[in-house]
Amino acid sequence: MPVTTIAGRQVHVDAEGFLTEYDEWDESLAPVLAKAIGIELTDRHMEVVRFLRKDYLDQKETATTRRVQAVGGIPVKEQFTLFPAKPGKKMAYIAGLPKPKGCV
Amino acid sequence: MHVLILGAGTAGTMAAAGLRHHLDDGDRITVVDVDDRHVYQPGQLLLPFGTYRESQLVRSRRAVLPRGVDLVTGEVDAVDAAASTVRLTDGTELGYDQLVIATGTSPRPDQTPGLLDGDHLARGVHEFYTLEGSIALREALARFDGGRLVVDIADTPVKCPVAPLEFTFLAESFLRQRGLRDRTDLTYVTPLDGAFTKPVAAAHLGSMLDDRKIHLEPDFLLEHVDADAGRIVSYDEREVGFDLLVVVPVNMGADFVARSGLGDELNHVRVDAHTLRSVDHGNVWAVGDAANLPTSKAGSVAHFSMPVLVTNVTDVIAGRAPSASFDGHANCFIESGDGKALLIDFNYDTEPLTGTYPLPVVGMPLLAESRLNHWGKLAFRHLYWNFLLPDRPLPISSRMSMLGKHAA
To answer: Which residue intervals of A1-104 are DSSP H helices?
Structure first.
């Protein structure tokens, strides 16, 4: 896995730039990752990010938009407003998690 | 010893046959389903184009289950896993020592506002994931005389994830042969960011859409259908207009799975991806589309995972730890129109490969169009009824082999 420097810190990423090591992420990285994809983080964004982080620990995989609605309580429509066009991928990217598995 | 199997579709029937072969004659096996009508689901894709008649796709469940297995007709209300009992909606209670959940995944048009308004067929809103829907679509295609044909996947995961693409290729070929292609705009709308999930296959299948001048509308998550105005609307308020819409509805597992506390947010049973055993209860298993495995929801997966299920249930009955491990092996024929098809083959860890299958050299070409693959798909209906369901041996391995395959 390639290593890159984000906010002065070395982290492991995959070919698309998603962080690959759960423990290399902390909340100080979130605004830097968000800015890289054109998103200015608000408290509401961080609610989603914290849900994703917590849910990943339980489930060992990144929550889908449907799960963020059903379990995290953030409506899909709002997810599209917060993370335009590709909420599933963008949320995961900012939260330092693998992109969610789509249909396989 | 009593093994109770919920669902007598592809996976439940194969599980009944496999377990009957391996358990002692004194062990009882009971299968529960809502009716006695086993539908060959892959046929629903081809029926709208006149390949099959309805009668070729339906048999009695009883007739395809092995001897020595009881079929109970009824609807499951809930599983009480703590008590090892299953209650049916008519009040019947069935006890079990081992429970195998094989109730699959089903299209749920009720999950999308406007998709099931009672009058949807008259407004050009169709699907092919039920036999009735597939028949209605055959009639709609026969009447279609050009305009905007839109194929839309509402959400993932989708049962048989290549079927929507196949439908699109087949429709393109069908319209061309009828002289309607020039008068038809064909659009493929998907919540994914490309034609398919697996990157190698997505690139190949995406260029097949380009070659056929089929417009791809990616990253479109269906929010509602406005049948009156003839358009579909995404969560981020994009719109695609249609004259004839073919939707693949949201797929969900059975509601009793949720009521019994065994499922994820789509009612698929939470199991260990390698043993197929419930992560919550040691005598509960799920196989086929009902399980939340991170691989395709497809009959091939049910087939390739069946030896694992049978071995592991037999192990646990004998007081041993489960000894078999599933690798996520899936393969799919992809009909590409004009009497040709592709074949793809992958598992949890390996992307679809090029090469030949099942044998190096004499096998069917992988990830390439050929007539042989199309005939393979048609021959499959015979294999399904006569070899796969009764658990008769096929000359291919269930574990994925790398022989004859190359990374693309």
So the answer is: 30-36, 43-59, 65-70, 76-82, 87-94
Q: Distance from first CA to last CA of chain A, Å, rounded?
A: 23
- Tell me the nearest-neighbour CA distance from A23 into chain B, angstroms: 23
Q: What pLDDT, in 10s, does the model give residues B140-157?
A: 999 999 999 999 999 988
How many domains are contained in chain B?
2
Residue B291 near residue B301 (C-beta atoms within 8 A): no
Q: B116 and B230 share a domain? A: yes
Tokens of residue B270, six digits: 């939470």
- B219 vs A67, A86, A104: nearest CB: A86
Q: Domain check: are B295 and B278 in the same one?
A: yes
Using CB atoms, pick whichever of A64, A67, A103 lies closest to residue B161: A103
What residue type is assigned to position B290 of the chain?
Answer: A
C-alpha neighbours within 13 Å on the C-beta side of residue A98: 11
Chains A, B: CB contacts within 8 A come to 47
**How do beta strands A3-6 and B147-153 pair?**
unpaired
The two tokens of residue B178 are 């009828």
Q: What is the CATH number of the domain that holds B200?
A: 3.50.50.60
For residue B257, give the amino acid letter: V
Nearest residue to B400 (alpha-carbon basis) of B342, B362, B365, B351? B351
List, for residues B369-379, the tens digit of each pLDDT value: 888 778 777 88
More confident residue, A6 or B5: B5
Place of tokens 């939260």: A95
Domain that holds residue B125: 109-251
Token reading at A96: 């330092």
| ipTM given for this complex | 0.87
